[in-house]
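ARCHIVE CARD
Drawer: 12
Card no.: 0347
Subject: one protein chain, sequence and derived structure
Cross-reference: see card 0346
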Amino acid sequence: MSVDREELAKKEIGVTRISNAWARTITVVCALFLALVPFSQCVVELSEPVKGDMLPLPSVTGLLSNLRGLPEAEVEEDRGLFNRVIAVNDRLLAAIQTYEKDLENSSVFRTSILPPVQRFFARTLRKGNEKAVVARDGWLFYERDIRALAGMPPVIAPATAAILDFADRLAERGIVLVLCPVPVKPMFHPDLLGSSLPGEGGYLRDPLFEQLKRDLEGSTVRVFDAPELLYRFASSSQEPVFLKTDTHWTGNAVQYAGAELARFLENEAELTLRSPVTSSGISQTVTNTGDIARMLSLEDTEQTVIRRVLVQEQDIWQVDRQAEILLLGDSFTTIYSDSSMGWGDSAGLAEQLSHESGRPVDRIALNDNGAYASRQALQHELSRGRDVLAGKKVVVWEFALRELALGDWKVLPLEAGIATSAGFFVPESGSTVTASGLIRSMSARPTPRSTPYKDHIMAFHLVDLEIDGEVAERSEALVYAYSMIDYELTQVGRAMIGQRINVQLYNWYDVEDRYFSINRSELSDDTLLLEDPCWGEELP
């Protein structure tokens, strides 16, 4: 009688034998291996130098502070003993999951082994990771850029709806919306990825962008076709549009885009020249390690030439809040503006647009999520009673084309709020205070090397606030602080809900120009975003 494969497998499994000694040995070895990561992390953390009077403690002890602080972090009303126990248990489970994630991503065991292994795979085997792709001739690509072009169906309705709604809300205030979608690297270099389809006209067109242009015909939205213009630039100059080891465009490409955008606005928007800008452009060669290279733990550098825009021949260019042009953007706008990205300063898209047009430019730009983050930041400013759209004639919305497939196209309101006296604590402008507070909620933290951005800022809702050692009259605060610097999580970035942290607080609007464009996550409770924030720097 024949026996099918499933029955045979069951019989073989059923007669598998192993001695008690081997079973115990395997169990002990597996348990020791599982314990190796947290044990090695605790040993390293316990060996850290003493900070003042504080003895070094392993980060796992933060879970104990959560047990102590969680009941305080709950809402004021009586929820009953059972409900409070459930709530505290949920918070504790979330804290444990956060600790496990941090341990997985940034433990000394991982950071000491993964980088050399990753470098070996990238250099020797030309293998990347889940975020980066190694192509021919040393070129590196961001996986999301490839997936946006090759892995998504041509559905553009959410983006179209959000763009038209945004345009309508701006039109109510007499403001014209200009779209400036920036191409991604695979569109111009598909051959380096092994593709035999360069695309009609010499580059790979994005079908979603082509559909978007058709859908917007007849609307009030003006579309600046950056992909087509940059292809002309590449064809005529024989220069690369993109950096070899980075996701972004070259210094010459952004300079060209700024000049073409200035000409486009002169034809498409009714602007006045109330306060002309006189500036000069200074060429400078900058050297840096590309963001994709850093994701692969590579240290290779490359160079690009930027044009720094200076006013009065020596001062770096600054945004003008009274300008008729507002530029909303992502890291393609800020790569040569934000010195923390390593590619120089005063040479980004806003600077080039201002220099070429002779006009002041206002800017709201964050380094990620261009479909949503800059609009959300605009919404928050309006909600807090800061009417940043006052006097504007045109809003230029720059975002990477990958956003059409992968971005968040939620429709956002743009109602202007009324400035009120703050219910949360905020230091006076020009002053700083030492504060201690209990974390009631916090925004998402990044996984190091999982994004192209080496720095990240988190938002924290602090309660039970103490200022300079005394209980604060205003006992709550909304605080922005670095959670990651150069791909390393900060101590504040490792904190958990229910934990008490010590920070030096500044008025956010005193430092906004310095930190605003850095990749940032926001709290999920929109009502908190109406409060004026503080900037926090961690203390021991």
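Annotation on reverse: The longest strand covers residues 456-467. The first helix runs from residue 5 to 14.
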